[in-house]
Design brief:
By secondary structure, this protein is an alpha+beta fold. The chain has a domain of 105 residues. Helix content is 40%, strand content 13%. It has ten helices and ten strands. The strands form four sheets. It has a four-stranded mixed beta sheet with strand order 8-2-3-9, with no helix packed on it. The chain has a two-stranded antiparallel ribbon with strand order 1-4. Strand 6 and strand 7 form a beta hairpin. Helix 5 packs antiparallel against helix 6. The two termini are 31 Å apart. The protein binds zinc ion (ZN). Zinc ion (ZN) binds next to loops.
């Protein structure tokens, strides 16, 4: 089950508009479609970077001043019936806090600004998490159910797609033991021979390895589904998404 930690209030570093940052303390693993690039359909991992709802400036959450924690009770006002039987009224919070905007995952333009303005102090782990967002957004073009809603400018693709993958490759190699991510990046870069060699050194029980090996063999560099839960298959995909099912089965 997805559970949210206490939301905190932060201030946009550009205009001081308040924003609510919901911390995810755990997330559901039910109903997942997992993709070869690590993207999962119900992924709720913490956002590092966002666009201000008020001034449209983009900022790293780390750079935003922490203002306080939103009391849990303010999030849901008890109904009249509950109040009649003594349920507490929510504590008063200031108008500013009430108008705080919820932090949304960044759109692709904001992610690109994040990469272009990344400070030298950013840790490798944070850079990696941020670059994965761009990788996933760009790969959305090949996630069939989303193809229609995601248009990405040619300029972003030309300037960032390959460079982003090359930097992610460096970061994943830095991690030490070869991972399925290293295999996948090399495959998506079209470096199939290297990808196959690294794949042989990855833990052979890794989910999706067999599917990725087949894609390497036919020199297919597009992102692909590596795992679907039965829940998702029976409840959401229904009968009209045969193409994706077929692709998954290889
Ligand atoms: Zn702002």
């Amino acid at each position: 089950m997805t559970r949210l930690a206490t939301p905190s209030i932060i201030a946009c570093p550009h205009c001081q508009q308040l924003a609510v940052k919901k911390g995810v303390s755990s997330f559901s693993t039910g109903g997942l479609t997992r993709w070869s690039d690590g993207y999962a359909s119900s992924w709720l991992g913490g956002t590092l970077f966002t666009r201000c709802w008020s001034c449209h400036g983009v900022f790293w959450l780390e750079d935003a001043a922490y203002v306080g924690d939103m009391p849990y009770e303010t999030q849901k006002r008890p109904g009249w019936f509950a109040r009649l039987f003594g349920a507490n009224e929510p504590p008063e919070i200031s108008e500013n806090w009430r108008r705080a905007f919820p932090i949304e995952p960044p759109d692709i333009d904001a992610i690109v600004v994040g990469i272009e303005t990344m400070s030298r102090d950013v840790t490798k782990a944070m850079e990696q998490r941020h670059r994965r967002l761009l990788w996933w957004k760009l790969n959305d073009r090949d996630r069939s159910e989303r193809r229609a809603v995601h248009s990405v400018s040619r300029a972003i693709i030309d300037t960032h797609e390959e460079n982003n993958l090359l930097r992610l490759l460096e970061l994943s190699i830095d991690e030490g033991a070869p991972t399925i991510e290293t295999v996948e990046i090399l495959r998506e870069l079209g470096r199939f021979d290297e990808s196959r060699l690294v794949l042989e050194r990855v833990d052979q029980n890794t989910t999706g390895l067999e599917i990725i090996a087949k894609k390497i063999a036919v020199k297919d560099s597009r992102v692909c589904v590596i795992q679907e839960s039965d829940y998702l298959r029976s409840n959401m995909l229904g009968g009209d998404n045969g193409q994706e099912d077929k692709e998954f089965k290889g």
